[in-house]
Amino acid sequence: xxxxxxxxxxxxxxxxxxxxxxxxxxxxxxxxxxxxxxxxxxxxxxxx
Length: 48
Known about the structure:
By secondary structure, the chain is mainly alpha-helical. It has 2 helices and no strands. The chain has one domain (11-47).
């Protein structure tokens, strides 16, 4: 198992990257550290 590097950028770009990771690598779970949870909520809405 490899770690994905930090993903930075606007929420829509992060959501697009995560969808691409899912298509290419089959990734269905990610981890978000607590300090970033509030900001990451927008990404979750886009992935909805």
